[in-house]
Request: fold
Amino acid sequence: MDYKYRWKIVAILGQGDQGRVYRVIDTKEFDIDGQIRPDIENALHGLVSSDKIETRKKFFELFRWAMLDLFQMEEPENQGALKVLHKPKEAKGADRVQDRIKREIKAMASISHPNLLEILDTDQDSRWFVSKFYPKGSLDKHLHTYVGEFPRALKAFRQLVEGVSELHKKGFVHRDIKPQNVFVGRNDELVLGDFGLVFFIDESYTRISKTWETVGRGDWTPPWALSLRIDEIDPSFDVFCLGKLLWSMVSGSPNLPLWHYDQPEFNLETKFPNRHSIRLANYLFSKCIVESEKDCLPDATGLLEKVDEVLSLIDSHADVVDPTLKLQCKVCGRGNYIESDAGSNFMKPVGKRVLKMSICDYCGHAQLFAVDLWEKVLALDKK
Reply:
């Protein structure tokens, strides 16, 4: 069925290698041509031509309700985003491309999660689909939102990881996680966009990009996945990209070269040395932004566990003990936390973490620090 039977295009949102995207109105909910516009025209005609008060009241009510529908129709949450995919023109492998598109749109429509793009409508031929419309646009336009604020970024990021975890549990790999494919919702929630569908590299749509057959080069591609066929990609591919996405959110930069999160020019600890809990960021990155797949978490469920582990530390206001650095007091700002007899004797288990208390050498403020987590980070550094 053609999308025009239900969806009315009101504006074009963009065009790319996959297809065109339009902002649309659902005519099942808002029939502008069949009801709203005629009601407004009839009401205005009746208000002008009638001299009876009761009749004018009826036309005024008709006008009021029609205008209310019109205003509601303009609300972004009542609209959709129509994506019309380019049709292959005698492209090599066009039949397989079409089958792949059908499967992926079906997968997108079958998985429901508040942080995954919701498919509102599609057809059996799957040359188009309509999803929710997000007027704030994609995350790459809002990277300034979380700069230097690792705890806030991590809480927003967790929603995405949970959504990708649902994909992985159903046997799907997204393959195209990056800021341009993450939408910002009305309440600033993050929503992951559509799968990495097939791309074309010429305007006549006869040459399918290598993304169809193999994974091309790029800083968002895990090094171990270069030249792999799409069908051979494992969920660890998405984990690598999720790690880079988090780095972009906290750094405010659109792209991290390769796996170099710990290099001086890209290290968040260096960029934000006085930000609370920033050391925990590199601990997470060491589990996903890696050169070798064996060092990467296998799927988003594993990453979700690590994210929750770090969030529990942040919520308990526990810092990581780094024996090579001085930790400035959070109360007076003049002294540094040091181990004392009282601090050394205080060890408190919190979940899977062990916390130790240190005391400011100036004002005496006591602070809890996670001991065993830093030991694991040090162990990773020695490998």
Q: What stands out?
A: The radius of gyration is 27 Å.
